[in-house]
TrEMBL record:
NCBIfam families, A to Z: RhaI_grampos
Protein name: Xylose isomerase
Gene from which the chain derives: xylA_2
Pfam families, per database record: AP_endonuc_2
Listed GO MF terms: L-rhamnose isomerase activity; metal ion binding; xylose isomerase activity
Keywords associated with the record: Isomerase, Manganese, Metal-binding
Keyword Isomerase set for record: yes
GO biological process: L-lyxose metabolic process; rhamnose catabolic process
SUPFAM superfamilies, sorted: Xylose isomerase-like (SSF51658)
The EC number(s) this enzyme carries: 5.3.1.5
Superkingdom per UniProt: Bacteria
Xylose isomerase-like TIM barrel domain segment(s): 89-270
Length: 407
């Protein structure tokens, strides 16, 4: 195979640079990305949803699909869940955990849902009405119990709270309510659980959003304690924001907790990660690896959070996982000695070129080799296409009803 020869050549080039390819492969094999259960069902925009014949309808379908994705990619043995969606019809969670385990998956980050009920018109824990705040906190506490039942140690909180008009509510008071609510959740968690707090600049609220940026998330997490960290959803930034710098700051402060990977061009587009800006994704991983090399304690939960509106969901997810792997692999191949030397000499051009050189490496042969060593086929997408799984679920699920989840 051509890629095998290319791999041999790459191994030689890296050896000359003093980069240990075995170490790189080992890191790539240990990478773990949580699959979002909600991404395999039908999803869409507020204008409508295009149905996919084989889209997952039940929680069992979602587990089956995640297991199929894991079969071909090998680095996603974990399914992230939304509590309202990933439950049996009679409200049980243990069977979900058991079925996932049967399929070789464990349940990862548990996401409370405080945005889909009528009561949330004015927010959840920031709501001006105490009864809504109270019932949201009850839901939070319930999520701790659910996480226990699912065997999960991570809660991922995104709040849709905000206001639409100036004057609508007192902003400082909303901040107080926000902290009070989060703190109750934090205190209700087990000692080995982590709370990840996601931020988003706007939508569904359009004037103010209570957790609007990393600064607010960082502030809340710092006030809560060590087991609260920031969750960075790549689509939740205004245009031009330097996300990799945010990552660097959070890593340095010990508050970088998790990612929701996706890509955007305009707002919270939820496109396949790496499809619009693969270089930006590489620069994020570069920060992570640089921190690791500097012995910073890096403990990050990686998740996808995407909405596959026009592409087949499972294929979109497979492609996304591969894009993340490529970015990670390239960042692992940065010639850090050369980079350091260029920096010490104030050689901006060479420093930048060193990063670009790693970004430009064709890492497909390396990733193919990693997969073969893991006992899976080198090309996950072709492997999936050849398997007949898409046709099977289309046959079995067709006409069984449409299930539409948010994205
Ligand atoms: C909000 O836009 C978000 O990114 C949050 O993570 C939600 O939990 C997710 O989308 C799914 O609706
Ligand atoms: Mn998200
Ligand atoms: Mn989002």
């Amino acid at each position: 195979m051509l890629w095998e020869k290319q791999y041999q050549l790459l191994a030689q080039v890296l050896a000359d640079k003093g980069i240990d390819i075995e170490r790189v492969k080992d890191k790539l094999k240990k990478q773990v990305i949580e699959l979002p259960s909600w991404a395999v069902g039908n999803s869409g925009t507020r204008y409508g949803t295009f149905r996919e014949e084989g889209a997952a309808i039940t929680v069992w379908d979602r587990i089956d699909d995640c297991a199929e994705i894991q079969r071909v990619v090998g680095i996603c043995p974990v399914m992230a869940t939304h509590v309202l969606w990933d439950v049996t019809e009679d409200g049980k969670y243990e069977p979900v955990r058991e079925y996932a385990a049967e399929k070789g998956l464990r349940i990862g980050t548990v996401h409370p849902n405080t945005f889909m009920g009528q009561q949330f018109k004015f927010g959840s824990i920031c709501n001006p009405f105490a009864d809504v705040r109270r019932s949201t906190i009850e839901h939070f506490k319930d999520c701790v119990r659910i996480a226990r039942e699912l065997g999960s140690k991570t809660l991922g909180v995104w709040l849709a709270d905000g206001t639409n008009y100036p004057g609508q509510d007192k902003l400082r008071e909303r901040k107080h309510r926000l902290f009070a609510g989060l703190k109750e959740l934090y205190d209700a968690m087990d000692a080995d659980m982590t709370l990840l707090l996601e931020y988003k600049p706007f939508e569904p609220a359009f004037y103010t959003t209570d957790v609007m940026d990393w600064g607010m998330s960082y502030l809340m997490c710092t006030k809560m304690g060590d087991r609260a960290k920031v969750l960075v959803d790549l689509g939740h930034h205004l245009l031009g924001v330097n996300v990799e710098q945010i990552i660097a700051v959070l890593l340095d402060e010990g508050k970088m907790g998790g990612f929701h990977f996706n890509n955007h061009k305009y707002a919270d587009d939820d496109l396949m990660v790496g499809s619009i800006d693969p270089y930006g994704l590489f620069l994020i991983f570069d920060q992570i690896i640089e921190a690791e090399e500097d012995n910073v304690d890096v403990d990050i939960v990686y998740m996808l959070d995407q909405s596959h509106n026009i592409e087949p969901s499972i294929e979109g997810i497979i492609q996304s996982v591969m894009n993340v792997q490529k970015a990670y692999a390239r960042a692992l191949l940065v010639d850090r000695r050369k980079l350091q030397e260029a920096r010490q000499n104030g050689d901006v051009i060479l420093a930048n070129r060193t990063l670009m050189e790693a970004f430009e490496i064709d890492v497909n042969p390396l990733l193919n080799q990693v997969r073969v060593e893991m006992g899976i086929e080198p090309d996950p997408l072709l492997n999936y296409r050849r398997s007949g799984y898409a046709e099977k679920i289309a046959r079995e699920r067709k006409n069984k009803g449409a299930n539409t989840l948010g994205g």
